[in-house]
């Protein structure tokens, strides 16, 4: 499960209608020997690591089920961290991006009028912060790789075959 992406994806097509697929997957994922917890909503399934085995970087697999025109069900899944961890990184990137935009405008404006462009130094620092956020996310992904692999194995067992990660 090593990837430069922050949130790897899967896509699987099944030949049954959406309600049947959801009921079948939920039942198979809730079997006694399953090593994950399942939350079931209409059109969605969410696989989590059990509470006693979770840590800060524990992943989850969110599955979206959509019925196609020919009666098949398309399952799209996203591996990612806990929602709170994901929100922390999302807002971190949002703040760095917004401040970076203002710093770039300030720095280039200073440069164009012949002043010392100290705003570009702020932009450089914010780019370093963004790179740091990305590296921390990669580090966390590596810490959760074993559990991500476990969730992937459980999903493959539920669909009855191998599933490629994009």
Write a structural description:
The chain has 166 residues and is of the alpha+beta class. It folds into two domains: 9-81 and 150-159, Kinase associated domain 1, KA1 (TATA-Binding Protein), CATH 3.30.310.80; 86-138. The chain has four helices and five strands, in the order βαββββααα. The chain has a five-stranded antiparallel sheet with strand order 1-5-4-3-2. The longest helix has 30 residues, at 83-112. The protein is elongated and about 70 Å long.
Structure in a nutshell:
This protein has 166 residues and is of the alpha+beta class.
Properties at a glance:
50% helix, elongated, 2 domains, 5-stranded antiparallel beta sheet, TATA-Binding Protein, 4 helices, alpha+beta, 166 residues
CATH topology of the largest domain: TATA-Binding Protein
CATH architecture of the largest domain: 2-Layer Sandwich
CATH superfamily of the largest domain: Kinase associated domain 1, KA1
Could you tell me the number of beta strands?
Answer: 5
Poorly predicted segments: none
- Characterize the biggest β-sheet: 5 strands, antiparallel
Structural class by SSE content: alpha+beta
Q: Which series of helices and strands comes N to C?
A: EHEEEEHHH
Mean of pLDDT: 92
Helicity level, as a percent range? Answer: 40-55%
Number of domains: 2
What's the CATH class of the largest domain, please? Alpha Beta
The outline comes out as elongated
* Measured distance between first and last alpha carbons: 10 Å
Strand content: 15-25%
Gyration radius, in Å: 21 Å
Total number of helices: 4
Output the strand order for the largest sheet: 1-5-4-3-2
